Amino acid sequence: MLTTQLKYDLVMFFREIFYLIFTIVIPPATYLFMGQLFGGATYGENLNYVQFYTPSFIILITFSVVFFAFGFDQVMNRSMGIEKRISIAPVDMRTLLFSNIIKSVIITTLGFMTITFIGITVYSLEIGFADFLKSYGVFILINAALLTISSAIYSFFKEMKSALVFSIVLFQIVLFTADFTVPVDGMPKFIQVIANLNPIYHINHLFIDVWNGMFSLNGDSAISLGYIAALVFISMLLVTRKARN
Amino acid sequence: MQNITVKGLKKSYGSKEVLKGLDFSAEQGEVIAVIGKNGAGKSTFLESLMMIRDFDEGRIELFGKDIRKLNAKAVRELKRDMSTVLQPTNFYKNLKVKELLSLFNAYYGKDADLEGTIRRFELGEHMKSPFDKLSGGWKQRVALAIAFMTSPRLVILDEPTTGLDPYMRDVLWKNIIRHNREHKGTILLSTHYMDEVERYCDKVLLIHEGRAQVFDKPANILAASGHASINDFYLAQIGETEAVPC
C-alpha cells in the first residue's frame, strides 16, 4: 500500500506546476543566475560563491518542498474534502503520512543532487566524499526538523486561500532573510533582526558550516541549534495535540 | 441480519442540537432513503455512520459491532465492507480517473472488477482525464464508480444524484439495483428527489427536528397518510403548504 501511495504522491507532485516552479525551477535557476552575477565575490568567512551558495540553495529547495508540497498540500487536501473522503477508506493514516514524508525526502534529495551537479559542472565545486556524506546526513535531519515545523504551522489552516497567501509571503520573507540572495549582513538592521528570528537562517548557516567542514560547537552554533530544537519540540507538541483532537 | 442499528443518537454543534435521540435500523440488502429539510441532520447522521463524525450520546452498531468500542485496526477492517459518496465530491485533482480507481482499489485491498466498473458507469472515454478537468456530473460519476467498485456490504450515499443529468441518474439507480440484487448490499442514501424515493427505495427515513419522524415502507406511508405521493407526504410532514397540483 505504501509503495502505491508513494507512487501516486510523486506523480501528483510532478503534475503540479505550482509546486514544480517553486521547488524545482526557481531555486536552481536563481543559483545559476546569481552565480553569473556574483560568482567572483567572497562571502562569510572567506567562502567563495559555490562554497556559500551551494548548501544554501539545497536548503532553499528543501524549504520549498517541505512547505509547499508537504504543508500546503495537506491544507489543500483538508479544505477540498479529499482528506475526509480518504479517511472513510480503510487506509491507515500513518501510511499516508509516511508516504508524504518519503515523497518529500525523495524530492529534496533530487534537489540536493541537482544543485550539487550544477555546482560541479558549472562552478567547479569541490567537495570531499566524507563531507558530502556528512552533509547528506545533516540534510536528512534538517528535512525531519522542517517537516515537523511545517506540519505544525499548516495544521492551523483550514482554508486553501489563506494558506496559499501565507506560503507565498513566507517564501519571500525566507528568500530575503535567510541569506539565500543578498547577504543579510549588508541589509538594514531590522532585516537582520528578522533574520535572527527566522529558523531557516540558522539552519542555512549551520548547513553551510557542515558542508564546508567548518562546523564547531561554539556560542553561535549552540544558539542556532537550541533555537531550532526548541521550535521542533513546540511543533511536535502542537502536531501531537492536533492529532489527538 | 441487521447491518445498522442506531439507538438514541445525539449530536450538537455548540448550542445547536442537530440530532436529538435518533433511532434507526437497516437489514442487509435494504435500500433506504434518508430525507429531510436542509440542515435537518441528514449529513450528520450519515457521517456518524461513516465514522468520520463523532456523536455526543447514543450507540451505533455496524454489522453487529459497536463502533465506539473498536480500535483503529478494527475500524479499518469494518471500513473494508463500506463505501460512500460525500458531498461535495473531491479526490486528488491531478490523478487521472484510472489512477484514482487503481489507488482506491489498493486502499480496499480487494480484487475489484475495474473493467466491469468502468463499463457499468460508462467511464471509458474519461479514463485518462485528470479528475480536476471533469465536469461536476462526471466527477460524481467517478465517485459513484469508486463507491461501488469493491462491492461493499454497505454503501452510504449523501445526495448522490445531485448534479447528475436524468440519464446518469438512471445509470446510478441501475447500479444500485444491480448491487443490491447481486451482493445483497445495503444502500443508505440521502436525496431531495422524492420520485426516486418512491420508485426505488424499500424504506424511507424522514429526519425532522433531529429525530426519526417516520421510518417505514413507501407504500405503508402512503396508505397510512392518505397522500398521493411521497412528495406530498413529505411537504405535509415538514410543515410546508400542500403541494400545488400540476
TrEMBL record, chain A:
InterPro entries: ABC-2_transporter (IPR052902), ABC2_TM (IPR013525), ABC_2_transport (IPR000412). The chain crosses the membrane at residues 12-33, 53-75, 96-124, 136-157, 164-182, 221-239. Keywords: Membrane, Transmembrane, Transmembrane helix. It is found in: Membrane. Residues 6-208 form the ABC-2 type transporter transmembrane domain. Its main location: membrane. It is a multi-pass membrane protein. The keyword Transmembrane helix applies. One of its GO terms (cellular component) is ATP-binding cassette (ABC) transporter complex. The keyword Nucleus does not apply. This is ABC-2 type transport system permease protein. The lineage of its organism: Bacteria, Bacillati, Bacillota, Bacilli, Bacillales.
Automatic annotation (TrEMBL), chain B:
This is ABC-2 type transport system ATP-binding protein. Belongs to the ABC transporter superfamily. GO terms for molecular function: ATP binding; ATP hydrolysis activity. Keywords: ATP-binding, Nucleotide-binding, Transport. Residues 4-234 form the ABC transporter domain. It comes from the Bacteria. CDD domains: ABC_DR_subfamily_A. Gene3D superfamilies: P-loop containing nucleotide triphosphate hydrolases. Pfam families: ABC_tran (PF00005). InterPro entries: AAA+_ATPase (IPR003593), ABC_transporter-like_ATP-bd (IPR003439), ABC_transporter-like_CS (IPR017871), ABC_transporter_ATP-binding (IPR050763), P-loop_NTPase (IPR027417).
